[in-house]
Amino acid sequence: RAGLAYDRTMSDEPHDTIDALSSENRTFPPSATFKADSLVVDTSLYDEANEDDEAFWARQATELVDWSEPWDTVLDWQLPYAKWFEGATLNVAHNCLDRHVAAGKGGKVAIHWEGEPGDTRKITYQDLLDEVSQFSNVLKGLGVDKGDRVNIYLPMIPEAAVAMLACARIGAAHSVVFGGFSSQSLSDRINDAEAKVLITADGGYRRGEVFPLKPAADEACESTPTIEHMIVVKRGGNDVTMVEGRDHWYHDLMDGASTDCPAEPMEAEHLLFLLYTSGTTGKPKGIMHTTGGYLTQVTYTHKYVFDLQPETDVFWCTADVGWITGHSYIVYGPLSNGCTQVMYEGVPNHPGNDRFWEIVEKYGVTIFYTAPTAIRTFMKWGADEPAKHDLSSLRLLGTVGEPINPEAWMWYHEHIGGERCPIVDTWWQTETGGIMISPLPGATTTKPGSATFPLPGVTAELVDDEAQPVPVGGGYLTLTRPWPGMLRGIWGDPDRYRETYWSRFEGRYFAGDGAKLDDAGYLWLLGRVDDVMNVSGHRISTTEVESALVSHPAVAEAAVVGATDATTGQAVIAYVILRGGADVGEQDLRAHVASEIGAIAKPRKVFITPDLPKTRSGKIMRRLLRDVAEGRLIGDTTTLADASIVDELQAKAAASTDD
Ligand code: 7RM
Predict the structure, then answer these.
(1) Dist. CA 370 → ligand 1 center (Å)
(2) Most CB contacts within 10 A, which of 210, 277, 323, 614?
(3) CA of 644 to the centre of ligand 1 (A)
(4) Is ligand 1 within 6 A of the CB of residue 21?
């Protein structure tokens, strides 16, 4: 029988879409209490956007953003190139700072910053405006002009936001490189962008120690001919060497710099920033985002997805500013909406595993936005950690970055949200600029593990291999209409832009995710299509098997991959992290998967492991697990957060007798 099944994969029989194996029936409508103060409690925004999406976005742009000159056209769409709000001008820093100060909110806290060692800074909108204006003058003084690129390589300190906003203020594009990246990654990105200035720090705090940044910046700049100046923020206090003429201390340059620097209006399509994504193959792509559309989308999504009550909310997004989530939901969205937020420098387990919950309690955080990988780590650490703190200020929770397994969703709901907070599972990408698929928390009945529906103004469709719409079941997630925050291209490589995103399905944007639609029209993300496993002709998503594993009470986190198998084409190999104190046998876990979603998805082998290979932003790197499972030489590990785990897994694979 197995042989027959394998033949199916070789035949012409269609096996084009992704199988939908699991079903989740729990539903969570917004409570009456939540609805009472919610911005959206019905379908009005969806109806309006369905009627005329351009008019809908134009209304959002008018209401949420301050423009210096109005636009002539809302959208000019020459696939794959969109121009939004052409003819209009605006300044992003003005929208994030000046307009709030002018409205009398200068004394309001913009950022409650907490350093990892426990030092704090309270920064008001007036403070931030002054510091950004001063730093804008500093950049100008170093010869940075409108249209130039500036690289930023900083820890999670307020100066990161200051530097980004100062660039926006003077029309220079920033390119932020995550502080955990190597000097090689930094120099590659600087050279691709041809940046003039690099802003870094001596070092920052991580896990109780100072990690040096300046030495990596120095090394990078040995091969970056375009860099004229390096600006160094003093944070770690570690020893650094300053190169005469090139290097300047931030505090020296700021000392005496004028706080007067008018925000100059930019064209709506002026380049706001580049952000490099590494992807799985090839050189990093400099994703281009522009001014008016991007600001409209992040302001709109931050307001409605998080159901913002600007006077009372304390927002906390735990991402690093080096990722798109930090750009859109630490810097631009929250500040454009004039809200108060928390920014934290360090790791969640310093000094204890309850650091995040201590911060929530201390600042009275009301909206908390984090990644599923973090939630699964909290599950591993146990519910006692959040239970040590009063988390009653929380009223809304969010997730981003990966599919969230239903059990992790339930754990978040129960142990962090006290069963009272809606959860918004937000799907989007560096390329989309802002959230695309998510519940509206006062209007949408959620289901654990589903990102639910495209937001008003966004149209998504699943298609099969022949680009035919899939109304129910698994398929490829595509976007059918342009949206204001969409990427405008790949820096210096228009062919790659068209090829990567617009060529697989004609007229559609496709960036590589699978998803399924249930019979009520809810969307369930199924992971990257490159990771889909083909077992006896069944196309099985990693997400569904991983969720089945995580639904076992002993399991905190799981990763599965398809490894070549003589009988079935591919077989499922699972890597599992147990919850603190739990124990379980391999056969139990295999049987559990079979009973949850079917024998076809039963792993051939389950490895228990203390950790999994992840990118620095916390996404599981299944490509490396595939290499391990197939006994291959391990591929490129430069984007791994911790390379030692791969060696450990290889040793385990070698030691196991495969049956
Ligand atoms: C924001 C961000 C993008 C990729 C994307 C997906 C995955 C993100 C979700 C998700 C399932 C989610 N940008 N992804 N959010 N998958 N549910 N809510 O993460 O450019 O770094 O990554 O992340 O595969 O294509 S990103």
Answers:
(1) 12
(2) 323
(3) 25
(4) no
Nearest CA to ligand 1 atom 3: 429
Residue range 376-389: mean pLDDT, rounded:
96
Q: Per-residue pLDDT for 12 more than 60?
A: no
pLDDT at 280: 58
Query: Own/partner pairs for 641-646, CB < 8 Å, 24+ apart?
Result: 641/180, 641/614, 641/615, 641/616, 642/611, 642/613, 642/614, 645/609, 645/611, 645/612, 645/613, 646/613
Q: Whose CA is nearest to atom 5 of ligand 1?
A: 429
Q: What share of the chain is helix, strand, coil (3-state, %, to 5)?
A: 35, 25, 40
Q: For a ligand 1 pocket test, name from 330, 423, 428 the mutation site with the most ligand atoms within 8 angstroms of its C-beta.
A: 428
- Residue 460 backbone dihedrals phi, psi, to 5 degrees: -120, 150
Digit-coded pLDDT (tens) for 125-147: 999 999 999 999 999 999 999 99
351: preceding bond cis by omega (within 30 degrees):
yes
pLDDT digits (tens, 9 = 90+) for 312-344: 999 999 999 999 999 999 999 999 999 999 999
Dist CA 384 CA 28 (whole Å): 25
Does 400 sit in the ligand 1 pocket, CB within 6 Å? Answer: yes
- Report the atom number in ligand 1 closest to the C-alpha of 430: 20
- Ligand 1, residue 426: give the atom nearest the CA: 18
How far does residue 204's CA lie from ligand 1's centre (Å)? 27
Model confidence pLDDT, tens digit, residues 22-49: 888 899 999 999 999 999 999 999 999 9
C-beta 17 within 6 A of ligand 1: no
3-state DSSP call for residue 586?
helix
Nearest to 333 by CA among 580, 496, 156, 161: 161
Task: Give, to the nearest 10 degrees, the angle between helix 44-51 and helix 53-64.
Answer: 120
* Spatial contact of 348 and 356, defined as CB atoms under 8 Å apart: yes
390 DSSP assignment: -
CB 290 within 8 A of CB 271: yes
Does ligand 1 have an atom closer than 6 angstroms to the CB of 542? Answer: no
Distances (CA, A) of 206 to 117, 344, 369, 400: 9, 11, 21, 22
At residue 158 the predicted structure's pLDDT band, cuts being 50, 70 and 90, is: very high
Please say whether the beta carbons of 230 and 213 come within 8 A. Answer: no
Q: Which of 14, 23, 28, 12 is nearest to 473 (CA)?
A: 23
> 428, 482 in Cβ contact below 8 A?
no
